[in-house]
Amino acid sequence: MAAAQDAMTPIPWWKEPTKDQWLAWWAAWLGWTLDAFDFTMFLLIMVPISQEFHVPLAEVAFVLSVTLWLRLVGAVASGWLADRIGRKIPLMISILWYSLSNFAAGFSPTFAYLFLFRALLGLGMGAEWPAGAALAMETWPVRSRGMMGGILQGSWGLGFMLSSGIYGLFYAYIGWRGMLWVGVLPALSVLYVRKFVKEPPIWLENRRRQRAEHREVRAPLLSIFKPRVLGNTLTACVWMAGGFVAYYSVNALFATHLQKDLHLAPGLVATPIFFANLGLFLSTCGWGWWADRFGRRWAIIIPALIALPLAPLYLLSTNFLWIAAGFIVQGMCAGGGMQGQMVPYLNERFPTEIRATATAFCYHQAAIWGGFVPLVLTLLAAHFGTGLAVMMIIGTWLGCVAWATAAFYGPETKGTVLVPDLVVV
């Protein structure tokens, strides 16, 4: 009787995944966290780069924009590869690509050289997300997928924390070039992926069935625009675009705002960024827990609504403590809390044959919109003489409204079981 009772008692969620499932999740986590580390360090060094090469800040912001735009190219290529040959190889290629691009950028003798290699970084950066996200979500048990997907996505904040910590502690000694050279270290994680990670059984079975039934999907990008999935694709694209606009309206320019408008030292610039990204990570864990119990959509919508009145409260202030506190709370809302469900929600919306390609396109077409944000807001602030804060508020509002609206009209995917069934016709 005691044995029967033990069998009926649910095991803790963290004991449910197998060793291979944990290894796959950690591989995706490493790729995404270190991707964030390599990308976000540039947000902290735009002003000194502008000064060294004697170029306007808007031109340096344009480097950031092009990096984000090229994410779509890398993502779609990686998604196609991941749907055709597996999730593991594209993940390894992407990590090596963005690590070596960042390292090369540190040797830039001219601004054009820097522009080239930071743009190339965007290809690898875009390629990492679809392969890693599909690998993790197809492998992970459904019971805690929302929370672990939130932790995975929220680990972007851990990468940003790492780059801001290195900036605050070591920038005075290594300069902006040293910051970029440190970015080669993520390449070492490829050894872990190669040795320990296996392809998801769901994907392996799906590919076997495609071949056996002669139903191979050779152009998955075209398939996401077929009538059966078109509405899902479009709402996912609007949802993601709103998230990118909201995030980059603040996070792409916050360090520049503190440096240029408020003339703060590196230590003061790094402190709120560090703790805001810690808050981002913790909030994605909390909202992931909510999503597994009450649904994905409201775990997405509620934090976005909280962010609307919050933005002007701290961005219009000149009090450092108020700015820091507001930015930290914002990191838990528009910065991260509302975005924690990107990984599970997108992967649950599309079938296995086209999952990596579909999530790659929907996620990274949004990077096009996000890429316009730093450039447009910087130019508008200079044109109207407002400083960056007012433009950052407007961008945050537009992004959050689009995000919440698209999520409201999207499907609820809580409890979705990912299967190898052939769905695309």
Can you offer a commentary on this structure?
The chain is an all-alpha fold and 425 residues long. It is 78% helix and 0% strand. It contains 18 helices and no strands. Helix 14 (296-315) runs antiparallel to helix 15. It is globular, with a radius of gyration of 21 Å. Residues 1-7 have low confidence and may be disordered.
Summary, kept brief:
The protein is an all-alpha fold and 425 residues long.
How many strand elements? 0
Q: Share of helix among residues?
A: over 70%
Mean pLDDT: 88
User: Total number of helical segments?
Assistant: 18
Question: Any idea what the shape is?
Answer: globular
Task: Classify the beta-strand content into a percent band.
Answer: under 5%
Q: What's the main sheet like?
A: none
Specify Rg, calculated over alpha carbons. 21 Å
Order of helices and strands: HHHHHHHHHHHHHHHHHH
Question: Which secondary-structure class do the elements indicate?
Answer: mainly alpha
Low-confidence runs of at least 5 consecutive residues: 1-7
Q: Distance N terminus to C terminus?
A: 50 Å
Break the fold down into its secondary structure elements and pairings.
Layout lengths: L1 H7 L10 H26 L1 H8 L3 H29 L2 H18 L5 H29 L5 H38 L6 H8 L4 H12 L7 H4 L3 H25 L2 H8 L4 H29 L1 H20 L4 H12 L10 H8 L5 H30 L3 H21 L17
Helix pairs in contact: 2-5, 2-6, 2-7, 2-8, 3-4, 4-5, 4-6, 4-17, 5-6, 5-7, 5-8, 6-16, 6-17, 7-13, 7-16, 11-17, 11-18, 12-13, 13-14, 13-15, 14-15, 14-18, 16-17, 17-18
